[in-house]
Structure formats: structure tokens, C-alpha cells
Write a structure and sequence with these properties.
It is built from 16 helices and 14 strands. The protein is an alpha/beta fold. Helix 1 crosses helix 7 (163-187), helix 6 packs across helix 8 and helix 7 packs across helix 8 (197-203). Keywords: Transferase.
Length: 389
């Protein structure tokens, strides 16, 4: 569906590569520009499959790769030549780095006025924190999310997924790029997109943020409807596993209380002062049976109670399987690699996964040939370290 869109991706780690992977899944042609000397740390993560990590091979599927030493002027000229043919530049450097390299937005805009340039950074292109280093944990902390995403009297915990990186940087980056492409289609104008992972994480305070700003209600640990302040929570079974209970609506709460023989709790559902009593009663009730016993009961009922699965169990869950959320992707060493599928379903489009992410700069020679460079010129660039393949 995006087969007419060409993206030059200069990003590393998670936010930018995840964004460009989503766009590649939707058909865009993505060329990743990598450093031949400073290896993307995601390549070295565990587990390793062949010569790089499974995470790298997933995040960079269906992409081409060229390895350029951007400290050399010849490499900068190659970028400028590529920009003439590309629709989008995606980068993740700190503010000012691309300008110092000689390929900042204004420079590239002069070459291609229709260019859409998306910069994903921790704190954005402006503001007192723009040059500050950070990671997902820091962005969630600054955005106010960590302060009420915890148990009372306990410290915030590192999340299992990178919320600010992906829900903040990657997905908002995709939204910005697609919006700019639509705008360009109508006006022929390019665009500079400034994505701050902290800004976007701050915007994820959807309901709590509204209450804090308009109602002066500052959320704390286990103080709200959905963060442990009610019976909406996790409960341990007799064998140490957990069930998630989201039975907020009256019909679900009533059905659950009847099942657990706790009908005396029905009048207390909406009373804040009674929430701990309800939680204590649920805690005792769920410890009366094993995880499997509860599973056998709740699979037949529609009460908003589901098991807490580990990731292997989630991959094998019948709903995940039925929705085809795991796909087979071609891999240069193993032949086939199982990966997470694109979760967006279309009536008239099926994503195509060309191959798992490959070696650094593996497509460099082909890309330079397509730019019109002679074999002798390409050989000279390789010898001098401008390009590596």
C-alpha cells in the first residue's frame, strides 16, 4: 500500500527501526544507512541467530542496508544523491548532529523540496532538555507515568516493553510521516517532523492527564480505577500463577461474584472505601484453585478474566494463532525465521515480508550502482572506507 514511498533510514536501536519496519511491512521501500565502524547495539543483543540478534533481524526485515562512514565527505555526497530520489528521511541523532554532518533538514530540503524529514529524539529539537541523553525509563519518568505505575510504598518498576520508545517515538513517528505524505500529496510541500519520545509519552497520560489538568487530581500509586485502586487487578492462584480481572461493568462484576460465591460484595462495587475489601475477598477466592482449574472455568465464561501468559504461551494462544500474528520470514542462515507479524489488518492488502534484517551494508554495491557510480568508483570508495560491504 506504500509501494511508491521510499524511506532513507539513518536511525539505530529501537524507535526509528521499529517505525521504518512498520512502513516496510506496509510496502514502503526502506534503505537503512548504517555506520561501518559503530555497530548498532541491537545487533549484539541476545539471543543471536547466525551473525546478529533475533531482535535486529526482526526490526530490519524487508529493508536494504548500506554502510557509509558519514565522517567522510564522499559519504555525505552519496546521502545527498540518494535524497534526490527518496520521499522520507528518518533519523535519530541528537539535535544538531545532522547539521554538523552537512545533511540537516535545510540542506536536504534545498536538494529535494518535497522531502519529509522525521527526527525522533528523546526530548525534541527545542527546550532545555534537547541535548540531554536518555532512555525509555527516563522519558516515562519525566512524563509522569512512572510515578503512578507502581504499587503503594514500592518503587516504580522497569516495564517489560519500551513504552516511550515504541508507543511514543515509533508509532507517533509513523503517524507524522503518513500525515506529512498525505499533506504533500495535496500541496507538493515537504515537512520537518519533530518527534520527542518524552512529549509522546506525556501525551499517553490520556485519562489521568485530563483529570490532572482539568480537575487537579494528581494520580498516585493504586489510586485510580485502572492502576490498582480498585479490584481491577491481578490475582494469584494456588500454584503461584496469576489471572487478570477486568470485570468493571456491573454485569461482569455480578457474574464474577456469583461464580466466586461472593454475592455479598455486589452492593460494594462502586464504593471507593470498599475496594480493598473486594480485593481481599478476590485474593482469597482465587487462591482456592490452581491456574489450570481456573482456566477451565473461565474459558467458558465471558467475565473479563484472562490468564497472565508468558510470551511462549502467548505465541501459542489460539487467538494469537487464529489472528496470524506470527509469520515465517526468509532468513539467510536458517532459511526460515518466525517473527511477529504486522498487526494491522486490511481488506485488500496482505503485508509481504521479504527477508530478515541482514549484514551491515549488504546492499551497498547494488545501491551505488543504481545511483550511476562505476565499478571502479565503487571499488575506490570501498578501499578508502567510505562504504563497506
Amino acid at each position: 500500500m506504500l509501494s511508491d514511498v521510499k524511506i532513507l533510514d539513518l536511525s539505530t536501536l529501537l524507535p526509528g527501526p521499529y517505525a521504518s519496519m512498520v512502513l516496510a511491512d506496509l510496502g514502503a521501500k526502506v534503505l537503512r544507512v548504517e555506520s561501518p565502524t559503530r555497530i548498532d547495539l541491537v545487533r549484539e543483543m541476545s539471543p543471536q541467530v547466525g551473525t546478529s540478534s533475533a531482535a535486529h533481524q526482526y526490526l530490519n526485515r524487508s529493508k536494504e542496508s548500506i554502510a557509509l562512514d558519514l565522517k567522510q565527505p564522499e559519504a555525505i555526497e552519496i546521502i545527498k544523491a540518494l535524497v534526490q530520489e527518496y520521499d522520507v528521511v528518518l533519523e535519530q541523532f541528537r539535535p544538531g548532529v545532522m547539521d554538523r554532518l552537512g545533511i540537516g533538514y535545510e540542506t536536504l530540503k534545498a536538494i529535494n523540496p518535497k522531502l519529509i524529514y522525521c527526527a525522533i529524539t528523546g526530548y525534541g529539537q527545542t527546550g532545555p532538555y534537547k541535548d540531554r541523553a536518555g532512555h525509555d525509563l527516563n522519558y516515562l519518568a519525566i512524563a509522569g507515568i512512572s510515578s503512578y505505575s507502581k504499587r503503594k510504598e514500592q518503587s516504580p518498576i522497569p516495564q517489560g516493553i519500551q513504552i516511550a520508545d515504541v508507543a511514543g517515538g515509533s508509532l507517533h513517528g509513523v503517524i507524522g510521516i503518513l500525515t506529512a505524505l498525505h499533506h504533500r500529496q495535496r500541496t507538493s510541500e515537504g515537512q520537518m517532523i519533530d518527534i520527542s519520545m518524552t512529549d509522546c509519552a506525556f501525551a499517553l497520560n490520556a485519562m489521568s492527564g485530563a483529570g490532572a489538568l482539568a480537575g487537579n487530581e494528581i494520580p498516585g500509586a493504586e489510586s485510580q480505577l485502572l492502576n490498582g485502586g480498585t479490584f481491577y487487578d491481578y490475582y494469584q492462584t494456588s500454584d503461584g500463577r496469576y489471572l487478570s480481572v477486568g470485570s468493571l461493568e456491573p454485569k461482569f462484576f455480578s457474574g464474577l461474584c456469583q461464580l466466586l460465591d461472593l454475592e455479598h460484595l455486589l452492593p460494594l462495587a462502586s464504593k471507593p472505601s470498599a475496594q480493598q475489601q473486594i480485593k481481599d475477598s478476590f485474593t482469597l477466592a482465587f487462591k482456592q484453585k490452581t491456574y489450570q482449574q481456573w482456566q477451565a472455568i473461565f474459558i467458558k465464561l465471558d467475565l473479563c478474566v484472562e490468564p497472565v501468559l508468558n510470551l511462549k504461551e502467548a505465541c501459542e494462544h489460539p487467538h494469537i494463532v487464529a489472528r496470524e500474528l506470527i509469520v515465517d520470514v526468509q532468513h539467510p542462515q536458517t532459511g526460515i525465521q518466525k517473527q511477529l507479524a504486522c498487526p494491522i489488518k486490511f481488506s485488500g492488502y496482505q503485508p509481504e515480508y521479504q527477508q530478515a534484517g541482514g549484514e551491515v551494508g549488504v546492499d551497498g554495491k547494488q545501491i551505488l550502482s543504481e545511483l550511476g557510480l562505476s565499478n571502479s568508483k565503487i571499488t575506490a570508495f570501498k578501499k578508502s572506507g567510505v562504504v563497506t560491504f
